[in-house]
Amino acid sequence: MPAIPANATNTAALWPGTVASTVAYRNAFTPQAKRLLWPLFAMAVVGGVLGAVILLKTPPATFLRLVPWLLLVATLLFVFSGRMTAWIRNRMGQTAGDRHLPQGMFWAGLGVQLVIAMYVGYFGAGTGILMLALLALLGLDNIHAMNGMKSLLVSVANGVAIVTFVWAHVVVWPQAVLMLIAAVTGGYAGAYFAQKMNPQHVRWMVIAIGFGMAAYFFIRG
């Protein structure tokens, strides 16, 4: 199918997974996370809609040229996610016990959240590590609360993007349903077998697939 309906269909198919993850983290939200929740939630709604609208307004040929770069950036984020995670943990150690967030950083964080949510609505790959880094900058120091916030905000941004895609009639439902079933099955099977593998081997496989897909679209373009 064309690239933009394919991207919209993929978003619809994978959305239930992030919602399920959010439900699993429902009891992990700390008082500090709850104070930041509604402002970030609002930015996720606005950004998700804007990203989806920008995608729909993007000429298909332009989007096809962007796809390999988006895949490459997402893969590089995964490659360096270990260092970024170490930075997040270091930041968590520095902010533990410090609940005072400068007003300027708060508003800057909302701006960054808006940009991240727009990217979620537009393409979305690799946003998890970006969201965790933002939450660390905003002073959150509980990794479970951070993962819960990340899942919720990504779910919200993708959810409003899907509404926009449905309204524009670009979701191809037979494929979306098939992909949803495959995603649920593959997600469970992948988690089951990944736990039996060497984590470094799994990481190499993900990186190889990411670079391979990016290379394929670079060559195809």
- How far apart the termini lie comes to 16 Å
What would you call the shape?
globular
β-strand amount: under 5%
The percentage helix is over 70%
Largest sheet: none
Write down the domain tally: 1
Order of helices and strands: HHHHHHHHH
How large is the count of helical segments? 9
* Low-confidence spans: none
- How many distinct beta strands? 0
Helix/strand structural class: mainly alpha
Mean pLDDT rating: 85
| Radius of gyration, taken over Cα atoms and rounded to an integer in Å | 18 Å
How would you portray this structure in words?
- By secondary structure, this protein is mostly helical.
- It has one domain.
- Helix content is 83%, strand content 0%.
- It contains nine helices and no strands.
- The mean pLDDT is 85.
Chain-wise SSE layout:
Elements: H1 3-24, H2 31-57, H3 60-79, H4 81-95, H5 103-122, H6 127-137, H7 143-167, H8 173-194, H9 199-220
Helix pairs in contact: 1-7, 1-8, 2-5, 2-7, 3-9, 4-6, 5-6, 5-7, 6-7
Give a quick rundown of the structure.
This protein has helices at residues 3-24, 31-57, 60-79, 81-95, 103-122, 127-137, 143-167, 173-194, 199-220. By secondary structure, the protein is mostly helical.
